[in-house]
Write a structure and sequence with these properties.
The structure holds two protein chains of two kinds.
Chain A: E1 3-6, H1 10-15, H2 17-29, E2 33-36, H3 45-49, H4 53-66, E3 72-75, H5 78-85, H6 95-104, E4 108-110, H7 111-119, E5 131-134, H8 138-143, H9 148-155, E6 161-163, H10 178-181, H11 183-200, E7 204-207, H12 210-223, E8 228-231, H13 232-236
Parallel strand pairs in A: 1-2, 1-3, 3-4, 5-6, 5-7, 7-8
Helix pairs in contact in A: 7-9, 11-12
Chain B: H1 10-20, H2 27-44, H3 49-65, H4 67-81, E1 83-88, H5 91-104, E2 109-112, H6 116-120, H7 123-129, E3 133-136, H8 139-146, H9 163-174, H10 182-199, E4 202-206, E5 209-211, E6 217-221, H11 225-231, E7 235-241, E8 245-246, H12 249-263, E9 271-275, E10 287-293, H13 297-302, H14 317-321, H15 323-328, H16 339-349, H17 367-371, H18 378-391, H19 398-411, H20 413-429, H21 454-466
Classes of the chains: A alpha/beta, B alpha/beta.
């Protein structure tokens, strides 16, 4: 039985626990033993993307220590996985930590990557009778080359109607701290994404990253659009729309 | 938009650009969209595109790594070919050299083919100040010159306009009847420029690449204007960035193709002009001067973290796919080079303090790196620019306090849990309207903290399982 250590990013922990729960459910259905270490917090991505490498280094070190003995580390967030797998290497870690990172980085997976590429298992999925648009989150798409995996999983859901977005690989404009540093610009980019989602006729927009979805959902609510956003893990288990 | 706005207030100029835009669809979005579509079509014609891209990347990197050797070979070729070489340390030196060449010969007008380097050294305004008129002969550059604007794109200077805008401009400035037919507009410009080509005493060209094995100066154009200004006048001044060197004519051919495909989606541009030197007998030009400009490039070259950016062949593809550029176009960036490549180059070529916001003006989506024909890791370079920007700030800047607090809270589980409990309490007590999140709630509704975080759920679930 593959032993999976969950990495539930801080904002998923606090804002989107349903995504974490769905992740646990899917991993168990796929035959994994799932553990969660509550000492974990944040991988440091926001500080890193703001240019604060010293502060990030502390968080990266903490992360690498926490997951040192894990067989697999799985997270429902592509950008956090990209942070660990790629950018920890840019931090100038202590030599011992650098070695730990080199050893650990290839055991850290985004959920769909882990299910499809590593386990090669399509867990039992539920029914989701809605029209769903999939947004390719940039870090997943370009840093981890994730697109086919979540699509394959989504296609296994009963009653789902998956629609294609125009300019589907275009950024939603979230960009982490960019969303507040260049707020109106981030929103303008997001409005174009929202237009594409509207045109698609989707009830629900989904992605590998709740961060993109939080931005898109916030814009949609502000505009009074009925579009709902949901991490794909929640769709896979057939969560009911509230 | 005035010419050469300062890059210093990027945040503000982006904000006002977004506020003041009235046109929909946005020219920047429509025109970049067309360019990307054309580029994708041409890329798909090469089944081995990835291999070619990686070959070109390696060749370009090799040229950058051996720049000193290649320059040594070039110098002897240039000498042999009769080209007079001037080295300019910075923009001021370059301007002085060029102005001197023209003034000494009593020349009062110079015809230019497109050169971003000439924008970088701000030659036009300085020539004008000394009584010499520069005339842009690339159609896009001619248009922005008539509008008294800076080019808004590296390869499509009038990218921020629709043809209707050009029609109005020509009617007003050239006194021709209004038309929005591109062929007619081009014919109007051609009529004006043709007379000037024939009487010009000096031409100025930008060099896309200098070829080390032969000493050729290669200029890529679509309108033949580069060839006109480098063959009709007696004096030709060529401007070249220090890093724009390639080893062989064969390499040049490959670079030319990938440049054309990436920039405009053409298989090849209409013209590739090779200037070897002054005419041998009585032809023209009888004088060729080359100004090789450093202006910060050698410093970029010395730093191994930044060196890769010198591979850039200035195709502008990264601008076309950039969600930021698509929204605001090139002008708000200030400086010479907009888009992702500009956000990397502007702080490097100037003092980082002159362009503090540039590395941050990106969602780091990575579309730029994906399309770059020479695989420049632009997101990584932007991240490096952010780090350098932070390091150049005072140690107790408010932002540092924020991030060191963040780090401290996130390093300890107890602090993290206490902080999130507090946030939950605040959320429960205060109505949403009283709780604006700076930079978030001005455009979007705020997400709500869940009643119970994942960690509590997992613990309870686990405990139930145990009992």
């Amino acid at each position: 039985m593959p032993r999976v250590s969950l990495f539930i990013p801080c904002f998923v922990d606090q804002l989107f626990p349903e995504t974490g729960k769905a992740t646990v459910e899917l991993l168990r259905r796929a035959g994994c033993e799932v553990s969660y270490n509550p000492e974990q917090t944040c991988c440091g991505q926001p500080a890193f993307n703001s240019g604060f490498h010293h502060e990030t280094r502390q968080l990266a070190t903490k992360f690498l220590r926490l997951f040192a003995d894990s067989e697999f580390v799985v997270a429902p967030s592509a950008s956090c996985v990209a942070m660990v797998r790629t950018h920890f290497g840019d931090l100038g870690l202590e030599p011992q930590m650098q070695m730990e990172w080199e050893n650990q980085r290839n055991r850290v997976y985004e959920l769909s990557e882990f299910l499809v590429d590593v386990l090669g298992v399509l867990p039992e999925t539920g029914s989701f009778p809605y029209r769903v648009a999939y947004h390719s989150s940039c870090h997943g798409l370009r840093e981890l080359e994730i697109h086919a995996q979540p699509m394959r999983l989504l296609h296994s859901v009963r009653d789902i109607d998956i629609c294609e977005l125009q300019d589907r690989n275009a950024c939603c404009g979230f960009g982490g701290t960019f969303a507040s540093k260049f707020s109106s610009l981030s929103a303008a980019i997001g409005e174009d994404k929202l237009d594409a989602i509207s045109r698609s006729g989707a009830d629900v927009v989904t992605a590998t990253d709740d961060s993109c979805l939080m931005h898109i959902q916030g814009l949609a609510k502000r505009r009074g659009l009925p579009i709902r956003s949901m991490h794909y893990a929640r769709i896979l288990i057939g969560e009911k729309l509230a | 938009m005035n010419k050469h706005t300062s890059p210093r207030n990027l945040k503000q100029s982006i904000r006002s650009s977004l506020k003041n835009r009235s046109q929909k669809p946005l020219p920047s979005k429509v025109n970049t969209g067309r360019a990307v579509h054309a580029r994708d079509l041409r890329a798909s014609e090469w089944p081995d595109f990835d291999q070619r891209r990686s070959d070109i990347t390696q060749k370009r990197q090799a040229a950058i790594d051996y720049l000193d050797e290649l320059h040594a070979r070039l110098r002897s070729k240039w000498l042999e070919n009769g080209i007079v070489v001037h080295d300019a340390l910075d923009a001021a030196e370059a301007r002085e050299i060029i102005t001197g060449l023209l003034r000494d010969r009593g020349i009062i007008e110079v015809l230019k083919s497109k050169s971003m380097l000439s924008e970088e050294i701000e030659i036009n305004s300085h020539l004008e100040a000394t009584g010499i008129s520069p005339l842009e002969t690339d159609l896009g550059e001619y248009i922005v010159q008539l509008r008294n604007e800076a080019p808004s794109h590296i390869t499509m200077p009038a990218m921020h306009l629709f043809r209707q805008d050009v029609g109005k401009l020509f009617a007003e400035r050239l006194g021709v009847p209004y038309t929005e037919t591109p062929a007619e507009l081009t014919a109007h410009a051609r009529k004006v420029l043709r007379q000037r080509f024939l009487s010009a005493r000096a031409g100025m060209i930008g060099v896309n690449f200098a070829v080390a094995e032969t000493g050729h100066l290669a200029t890529v154009t679509n309108e033949g204007n580069g060839r006109m200004v480098s063959t009709l006048p007696p004096l030709v001044i060529a401007l070249m960035g220090w890093e724009r060197v390639t080893e062989t004519l064969q390499d040049l051919g490959e670079l030319w193709q990938i440049l054309a495909r990436s920039a405009t989606g053409q298989r090849a541009t209409s013209y590739l002009s090779l200037l070897q030197g002054p005419a041998k007998s009585s032809g023209r030009p009888n004088e060729v001067h080359l100004v090789v400009v450093d202006n910060g490039r050698k410093a970029i070259h010395r730093n191994h973290e930044t060196r890769e950016v010198l591979r850039c062949i200035r195709c502008g593809a990264c601008l076309n796919v950039c969600p930021v550029y698509q929204q605001v176009g090139g002008h708000p960036y200030g400086g010479t080079y907009p888009g992702p490549i500009g956000s990397v180059l502007t702080p490097l070529l100037n003092n980082p303090k002159e362009a503090p916001d540039h590395p941050f003006a990106s969602s780091l989506c990575g579309a730029c790196e994906e399309i770059c024909p020479v695989s420049i890791p632009l997101p990584r370079l932007l991240l490096m620019g952010r780090k350098q920007g932070v390091e150049s700030r005072p140690p107790l800047s408010p932002e540092r306090v924020v991030w060191s607090t963040f780090q401290s809270v996130m390093t300890g589980r107890k602090k993290y849990e206490a902080a999130t409990r507090l946030a939950r309490l605040v959320q429960k007590t205060l109505p949403e309207k009283l709780l604006p999140i700076p930079g978030w709630t001005d455009h979007r509704d705020a997400p709500q903290l869940a009643a119970k975080p994942f960690r509590d759920w997992f613990r309870e679930e686990h405990e139930e399982g145990e009992s």
